Amino acid sequence: MSINILLSRSSMLYCSTRGGVVGWDFQAVLFSGFAPDGGLFMPEEIPVLDSATLQSWSHLSYTELVLEVCSLFIPQHLIPRAHLTTLLGAAFSRFPLAGVVRVAKLKDGLRVVELWHGATLAFKDLAMSCVGQFLRYFLSKLNRHATIVVGTSGDTGSSAIESVRGMKGVDIIVTFPKGRCTPVQELQMTTVKEDNVHVFAAEGTSDDIDVPIRKLFSDAGFVEQHGLMSLNSVNWARIMVQVAHFFYAYFQCAPSLENSPLPEVEIVVPTGGAGNITAGCVAVKMGLPVRLVAVVNENDIIHRAVQLGDFSLSQSVKHTLAPAIDIQDPYNMERLFWLLSGMDSSLIKGLMEDFYSTRKLRLPPCLHKTCVAMPQISEVVSSRSVTDRDIVETMRRCWEENRYLLCPHSAVAVQHHYQQQQLKHASLSRCCLATASAAKFQDAVLKAGLTPEIPAEIRALETMATHSTPMRRGECWEGILREKIELISSTWEGGNSV
Questions:
Q1: Rounded to an integer, what distance in angstroms lies between the CA atom of residue 127 and that of residue 123?
Q2: Is the pTM of this model over 0.85?
């Protein structure tokens, strides 16, 4: 094992993408949201794996890969490896699939990596279940309280709730865009009865919700006083666990690992907030030989950034058949820009402050060039944008050819595979990440002319009572959330917040 890896296991520290915070440990980053300077936390150094390590990892199961990845970013003195193994075992114990993740091998070389076999039938259960165990571990040692604040476009909210519902020492506040999630997504959030779960239904988009939450986390005194943290992919721990997806997908889909250099694999990622694609970029920086394809719906800011260097907001967010990626302000792109700039925090600080001031950004030459000479982002990520019509046609084709139901988000990725086939481009081995079960998106399945397959646990939600607090247009959403957070703090018995 390389010296780089051994050092990272003993001394991994974290910094903000904007340079105002350095030297934080994993525990401090876990119990945080945005960094105090408005940036996002990242490791100060990305460990690089040598070919011998990659070879040794190639035979590991998904859960074993998560352990190896996490052990690189969580020093032993914070969570000893034996304890980490136990925590991850508990995190994945609720997954009904023995291997937790699996690859469906379909017609004409289509390989679909099913990441959605958790409690809420979405890929976010994989990382969220681990993060919930990390919280439990530290909170039990500290005897303190944390308040989680989450804004969601759909799946994140229910998955975050599931990871901590009923957990001692934690309250969770989730805000979702009323009418912009699917009925199943809303029910998975609003039918939860545990006293530590507080759900708000906002009259706006997921991007609208992010604005007051970012303001809350920029108030360092308020954050510290009330022990605020995030379980959105703002939280580095989410990204960290998701890095393992890419190692698993690579080892499952690479044609052979016996030759040197190792073969490349193309991994296609349905992309909204850019957390998963950022995790893929971290895997690339670690030495994994993959090419990433970020495929978005008609909310195409990431596609425009990759293709044209235009990272500017559109006038509005379009409501599509893939609602979980209906995002025009993908905050994790800040992490990607930071990685690709050579971790140039001063550059990123200026760029992102300009972006949040003007809502427009033309990427500088060091990040993107529209000429052929060394385009920076496209060395790591290529991109596509698909329409609702593309989504429906892809869902229908996959069913007709394989009797396999895709959710609309997974169809966003698979559409790229079909398009490459049509163009008859010689390509690398390829796999597509499937981020949710089709059972969560029944309307999209029906629009494709197909019949939804609805599990019993989803049907049961339809008969349960719902609970949520409305946040109406024109109200001060930041004030509403502050008031709720203060009420939680005042009623918690124990005195200290994280």
A1: 8
A2: yes
